[in-house]
Each structure stands twice: as structure tokens, then as C-alpha cells.
TrEMBL record:
This is Threonine synthase. Keywords: Amino-acid biosynthesis, Lyase, Pyridoxal phosphate, Threonine biosynthesis. One of its GO terms (biological process) is threonine biosynthetic process. The modification N6-(pyridoxal phosphate)lysine is found at K120. InterPro entries: Ser/Thr_deHydtase_PyrdxlP-BS, Thr_synth_N, Thr_synth_N_sf, Thr_synthase-like, Threonine_Synthase, TrpB-like_PALP, TrpB-like_PALP_sf. The lineage of its organism: Bacteria, Pseudomonadati, Pseudomonadota, Betaproteobacteria, Nitrosomonadales. Residues 109-336 form the Tryptophan synthase beta chain-like PALP domain. Belongs to the threonine synthase family. The keyword Methyltransferase does not apply. Residues 2-79 form the Threonine synthase N-terminal domain. One of its GO terms (molecular function) is threonine synthase activity. Its EC number is 4.2.3.1. It is an enzyme of class 4 (lyase). Its cofactor is pyridoxal 5'-phosphate.
Length: 475
């Protein structure tokens, strides 16, 4: 399997060659040359597999430059009950992503039972093992530099801790994350993990990462890399749980399901789109946004208009507070019939600070073939949904999952099970849970008291030179 750029002006590459990088050299995103189609026989056989077994089947269609036995070992080491141990009481951790039924035909697929209690662990844990494997093979090292507002940074650190050849330098805005998120990151004592709290906002931290990455000489000398949301391996790893969710929510492969996906950067739901292209019987992919409704606007109107930073709302589902959806270009590439010239033209407008409008085009006419629906949710909706799900079903959901449930309920169809992807656990967003329910969130027993552990973090000004200096002295 080779990977091509959505902009069509970069050479095709193998999986391992794009693993450690980000954008393609032409500014596009990598996608498989073609999507592997799953036969009826394969789908029948996959129904009985464990999560790790299924992950191997799915990923071996996309990763053809790692010997099968090695890939099998990597996947088996990643998807264990010991790592994904934070299942709800009564659910089996060995399932990795257990399904909780709220009522007949309405389910939650638990994707947040990993070390950091958010779905990003599903892909990031695999990425950690893949990075270590490929770096070892090549005798190389990497220094991952990133900025986080919460979920991504902690998922990356828990995936990379203790891995040879990898160091993580993670910038976070001082005092802006929840107490639980801070404790998760800053309590790590591993020698290869460095937390840097920047005096400023998330955007200041992000700007520093960009400035360092734009310094080509520094980047090359200090082997600076990233694990951002456009990384293809992350998308690929996420495809697996759509298959798992489908098998859990149906009795036979004649049935169809709908998935509702809380969305920010279009990474999670992009994996659902690819699962559907592979032949998984998905009736509908329901995209749920918060007040930052760039994507809902597109699916309703055909207009894609990324927002300015100043137009981006700070919400109570903060991991979806995005101004532009960095993985969206992958879907648009498919929507426009995989014509890179069209993608280049559209993103010329977007990258120049503008928007594009597909209404009236043949591309827009094809949208129904992709079976998407969308909706948005606000803080008031979030509070109401958290309350209803708690009172009616006795299940506590986090703010992002609440956005998914709210929009899912607007798109249910008779006879089609609706599976809402649970993207985080409530305890990560305790403040909103208190506001909605007037009580403390549930917390997995082994993470209770996390806030009291000693923390290791370097506080510094939002200064590029200071961050570079820190990296140089810790390499
Ligand atoms: C990252 C994240 C999302 C958004 O996922 P995308 O892949 O960016 O669409 C939703 N919920 C939670 C809890 C997250 O951490």
C-alpha cells in the first residue's frame, strides 16, 4: 500500500516513510492510493475477533511495509486490558472498547478507557509502539515537540513515556487546563517526558511550536518531530473501533448502524468515513460539533469557512474548540472524486484566509453518496443532555460525548442502531459535571488522588529562544 498527497504534487510513499512526518511536502495530507475493500467473507470472519485481532486485520491492509509477525506483536502489545483498564463498572476491560446500551437501539461505544481517559489513547498508544519500532530499526531518534490544550498532549506523553529513541517536549498554557488534566501530565516522572508550562494562552504555545518547526536548521539538527492530528497512523488506528462498534451493536452483517461522532478536527469521523469506504455497513455518519460549528455549517450549506482565532469560542467541550478542521481535506479529496487539482484550488482560497462554497457543483451533488448528517450543540444543550442521560439511564457522560448524544437523538432512524462514540470520561471536565449534576464526577478508582501526586513542570515565558534552549539542554 502506497500513500498519496491530497494535493497531488508529492511522491507516493510507504507507511513507515510517512509515519514520523506530518504534512506531505506539497502541503497536502496523505491518504492510501485506494481504500481496501472488505469482502463479505472477511466481514463474517472478523465478527468473532478480539480487539487486537481485529486491529491486526484492519491495519495489515494499510501497513504493508512492516512484516506481519512484527505488526501482530505491536498490536497485541498495544491493545491490552491492562492499558485500557478504566471501563465502567460491569463492563469488561478485555473488550477494550465496550458498548454500553442506554436503551434498545441507542448505545455508547466507550473509547476512553485508556490511560488518559480520552479516545486519543486508542490511536496514540499504537503510535508510541510504532515510533519505537521504526526508530529502533533505523537507529534514529526523535524529539517530539507539541502544544496542547489538554487531551492530545497527555495522550502523547502516556504513549511515548519510557520509549527508546523518543523524547517529548510538551508545551501547555500555564493554569488553563483542568486540575485533572494538569495532574495527568505533570505527575509523569519519566526521563523522556518534559512538560513546559508557558505563561500565555494555547495559541502562544502553538505559535512557539510553529516557529521552532519553521527553523529548518534547528529542526534537522535536533530531530524535531510531531504527533499531530493529521498523522495518518492515528487515523488508521481509529478505523478499527468502527468495525468493533458495528459488531457489538448488531447481530448479523445484514444490519446497518449509524455512528454519532463528537467532532473537532475531523480526525475521528474521517476514520468512520474510511471504514464505510472499505465496505462496513454504515447507514449514516452523524457529525456533532459544539458552538464551533465550522463543520456543521459545511454539511448543511456546502460552505467551508474556517474561523479566525478571535471567532473561536471557548466552550465546555474544549477539545472541539477549533477554528479549522485539519483533517477535513482528506474527506474533501474523496468528495471531489480524488482530483488533487480541485483540492489545490479550494485550499488556495482557504489558506489565503477565505472560504469555499460547493453548492451548485457536481461535487456537492455527490454528498448524499457519503451518508453524512450533522448538527451542533451548545453549553445549555450539553448540561441538559448530561442530566437526562444520568437521570434516565444512570450513565455519566462527559461534555463532548454529550454533544454527540444530543445530535444523535436528532438523527435516529427506526431499525438502525445509533452508536455514539464516547470520546472522554466525565472526570476530565469536572466543572461542567458539577454544574449539570450538582455532584462530583465519577473517577476510576486507580486515578483518585491523582491531583495530590508530585508534579514536574518547567514554567517559562512564551519565548521561542527559551524553549529552543530548553530542548538543546535536554537532548
Ligand atoms: C480530540 C477530541 C475530540 C475531537 O476529535 P477530532 O478527531 O478532532 O474530531 C472530541 N472529544 C474529545 C474528548 C477529544 O479529546
Amino acid at each position: 500500500m502506497r500513500y498519496i498527497s491530497t494535493r497531488g504534487q508529492a511522491p507516493a510513499e510507504s507507511f513507515c516513510d510517512i509515519l514520523l512526518g506530518g504534512l506531505a511536502p506539497d502541503g497536502g495530507l496523505y491518504l492510501p492510493e485506494t481504500y481496501p475493500r472488505i469482502t463479505t467473507e472477511e466481514l463474517a470472519r472478523w465478527r468473532g475477533l478480539s480487539y487486537a485481532g481485529l486491529a491486526f486485520e484492519v491495519l495489515s491492509r494499510f501497513i504493508t511495509d512492516i512484516p506481519a509477525a512484527d505488526l501482530k506483536a505491536l498490536v497485541d502489545k498495544t491493545y491490552t486490558a491492562a492499558t485500557y483498564c478504566h471501563a465502567r463498572p460491569g463492563r469488561a476491560a478485555a473488550d477494550i472498547t465496550p458498548l454500553t446500551t442506554l436503551e434498545p437501539g441507542l448505545h455508547l461505544l466507550e473509547l476512553s478507557n485508556g490511560p488518559t481517559l480520552a479516545f486519543k489513547d486508542m490511536a496514540m498508544q499504537l503510535l508510541g509502539n510504532l515510533f519505537e519500532y521504526v526508530l529502533d530499526k533505523r537507529g534514529e531518534t526523535i524529539n517530539i515537540l507539541g502544544a496542547t490544550s489538554g487531551d492530545t498532549g497527555s495522550a502523547a506523553e502516556y504513549a511515548m513515556r519510557g520509549k527508546h529513541g523518543v523524547r517529548v517536549f510538551m508545551l501547555s498554557p500555564e493554569g488553563k487546563m483542568s486540575a485533572f488534566q494538569r495532574a495527568q501530565m505533570y505527575s509523569l516522572q519519566d526521563d523522556n517526558i518534559f512538560n513546559i508550562a508557558v505563561r500565555g494562552m494555547f495559541d502562544d504555545a502553538q505559535d512557539i511550536v510553529k516557529a521552532v518547526s519553521n527553523d529548518a536548521a534547528f529542526k534537522a539538527q535536533y530531530k524535531i518531530g510531531a504527533v499531530n492530528s493529521i498523522n495518518w497512523a492515528r487515523v488508521a488506528a481509529q478505523i478499527v473501533y468502527y468495525f468493533k462498534g458495528y459488531f457489538e451493536a448488531t447481530k448479523s452483517n445484514d444490519e446497518q448502524v449509524a455512528f454519532s461522532v463528537p467532532s473537532g478536527n475531523f480526525g475521528n469521523i474521517c476514520a468512520g468515513h474510511i471504514a464505510r469506504q472499505m465496505g462496513l455497513p454504515i447507514a449514516c455518519l452523524v457529525l456533532a460539533t459544539n458552538e464551533n460549528d465550522v463543520l456543521d455549517e459545511f454539511f448543511r450549506s456546502g460552505v467551508y469557512r474556517p474561523r479566525k482565532t478571535a471567532e473561536t469560542h471557548v466552550t465546555s467541550s474544549p477539545s472541539m474548540d477549533i477554528s479549522k478542521a485539519s483533517n477535513f481535506e482528506r474527506f474533501v479529496f474523496d468528495l471531489v472524486g480524488r482530483d488533487p487539482a480541485v483540492v489545490r484550488e479550494l485550499w488556495q482560497q482557504v489558506d489565503g484566509g477565505g472560504a469555499f462554497d460547493l453548492t451548485g457543483t457536481s461535487h456537492w451533488a455527490r454528498l448524499p453518496d457519503f451518508h453524512f448528517a450533522s448538527g451542533r450543540s451548545t453549553h445549555t444543550d450539553r448540561l441538559a443532555t448530561i442530566r437526562v442521560v444520568w437521570e434516565k439511564y444512570g450513565v455519566m457522560i462527559d461534555t463532548h460525548t454529550a454533544d454527540g448524544v444530543k445530535v444523535a437523538l436528532e438523527h435516529r432512524e427506526a431499525g438502525v442502531p445509533m452508536v455514539v462514540l464516547e470520546t472522554a470520561q466525565a472526570v476530565k471536565f469536572a466543572e461542567t459535571i458539577r454544574e449539570a449534576l450538582g455532584r462530583e464526577p465519577l473517577c476510576p478508582a486507580d486515578l483518585e488522588g491523582l491531583e495530590k501526586l508530585p508534579q514536574r513542570v518547567q514554567v517559562m515565558d512564551a519565548d521561542v529562544a527559551a524553549v529552543k534552549d530548553f530542548v538543546v539542554h535536554h537532548c
